[in-house]
Design brief:
Length: 314
């Protein structure tokens, strides 16, 4: 399972910009964050509350979307008005900021907290560059999850009377009295569609094949065939989404699942934060599957990948 490290990128290289002081001499910091959904905001508030308990003054600058937040951060730097800290995702953007000298190392914090001992080496390596710690991890996420709405499947079962609920759900928009349910909650943004593709690819070629394609850039017949098959399945999945999917935010798609307007959603485990906010979770309104995989004929044998409206057959 792939993991994504959500991080606070602490410090910027401009002296005097990492924190300012009020007249009361309270430590003050502006945080630029892209955590704007209900679950993300609740998580960020935990950190904010602890910071304020310790006497700090927290200034929030939230911007939806990692890309938009990165662009705004760079604009602030150019304008000489950098925030004290930025939250983001580990990867090329973070490395680029560090290579440009835009972040200060936080070795003193890491040493006092004994991060080298407390964190797994793999994570400690990710937050360190040239032997210095620059990043503070706030979470590690699994990207390959499938969430089911129990209520949606119950609706389909009630109106269709079918044993194969996955197939009935996929017919639900055409079936009489099935309330027009949408089979798949789809966020039509490139990064979301990439994650769904990765889930499919992982199921087709396995972890070794996945790493060969992404890490080794393998172009063997097996790898090429795996990518082609995954793209075919991804295209079929698109037959189960609604007309309003283009550009939809991930948390808006999750809201559709929470309100039982759709049957399933492919998303990382950060979606569970949205369920927590509304006090819904496994055993209540949802089913969860870790390491979601789409097989050639169905998703865990529940969703057929032959859209009725495209193929005209079962």
């Amino acid at each position: 399972m792939k993991t994504m490290m959500k991080l606070f990128l602490l410090g910027v290289a401009f002296a005097g910009l990492s924190a300012s002081a009020h007249a009361e001499d309270k430590p003050t910091i502006e945080i630029m964050s892209s955590w704007t959904s209900g679950g993300e905001a609740a998580a960020l508030n935990v950190i904010k509350t602890e910071f304020e308990k310790r006497g700090g003054v927290w200034k929030d600058s939230s911007i939806a979307g990692f890309g938009a937040a990165d662009a705004a951060f760079q604009n602030r730097i150019v304008a000489g008005d950098a925030p004290g800290a930025k939250q983001g995702v580990i990867g090329l953007a973070a490395a680029d900021f560090i290579n440009q000298g835009l972040f200060n190392p936080i070795d003193d914090v890491a040493s006092s907290g004994k991060w080298a001992d407390a964190l797994p080496k793999s994570i400690h390596d990710l937050i360190s560059y040239d032997g210095k710690v620059y990043l503070a991890p706030t979470g590690a996420h699994g990207e390959s999850w499938l969430f089911y709405s129990k209520e949606a499947f119950e609706k389909v079962k009630h109106c269709a009377g079918a044993q194969d609920l996955g197939r009935a759900l996929c017919r639900s928009r055409q079936a009489e009295g099935c309330l027009g349910l949408v089979p798949v909650a789809w966020g039509g943004q490139p990064w979301q569609q990439t994650k769904v593709f990765n889930m499919i690819l992982l199921s087709q070629v396995g972890i070794d094949g996945f790493l060969k394609i992404y890490v080794d850039k393998d172009k063997s017949p097996a790898s090429v065939e795996g990518v082609k098959k995954s793209l075919e399945i991804l295209g079929k999945l698109r037959g189960y989404v609604d007309a309003g999917a283009a550009g939809r935010n991930w948390n808006d798609a999750t809201a559709m699942l929470i309100t039982a307007k759709v049957g399933v959603q492919f998303m990382g485990d950060w979606a569970k934060g949205e369920f927590t906010v509304v006090k819904q979770g496994a055993g209540q309104g949802l089913w969860l599957h870790d390491r979601a995989g789409v097989e050639g004929h169905g998703l865990h044998r529940r969703l057929p990948l032959v859209p009725q409206d495209r193929q005209g057959r079962d």
